[in-house]
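One record is kept unedited as follows:
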Amino acid sequence: MHISITPETVGHLFSLPITNTLLTSWAAVILLIATAVLLRRRLKPIPGKIQNAAEWLLEKLLDFMETVAGDRQTAERFFPFVATIFIFILLSNWLGILPGVGSIGFFEGGPEGEVFVPLFRSANSDLSMTLALALLTVAASHVIGLLSVGFSRHLGKFINFKSPTAFFVGVLEIISEISKILSLSFRLFGNILAGEVLLVIIASLAPYLIPVPFLGMELFVGLIQALIFSVLAMVAMSASVRAAAH
């Protein structure tokens, strides 16, 4: 049994390494685009069962985000971005526990002999992926802040020489933004990686029937982690809007 914290390289595109987590994220993106195109072509004024179900799920998610943002207008403003983040993370998490993910691959030689390299692996078990999502979310909240209150006022939250207290508060704000990025990325990465390790250990000890309840648990954990990340994204963006109102 081989468990690696870092993703394994399965090939190269010119000189760029292609990892198994990157392949899984590409699969998630392709699946999302194909589903969106298919649903877009089948949209009807009188919705069918599939369209009804999709609209109901999005409406419930929007209602939940309204309670997070504080008002409907703010929730609707940022919902496309937040919902996209939620769906991508959820799909990536669930793809990571499909049969074959982590078990289909090849062997390659290394310092410790032959090592099994899975062809696919959960995208969010790669810290680079979760860090990119966290950076994107925090950067989006700052762009909203810049557009809402202007460059000088937004930057003044972090760089302020009016008084020693204001300067110290600005330093704390910078530390807060850095910790926000680390918190978002490591929370998602740690939970998904821990689930992946748990499934590998359980499958190696008892490969039949016993892992089924743990697979169900990982489906739930994948949903919760996607929801937590999207909620924190909505909190960050709505906070930028509230700052503009003061």
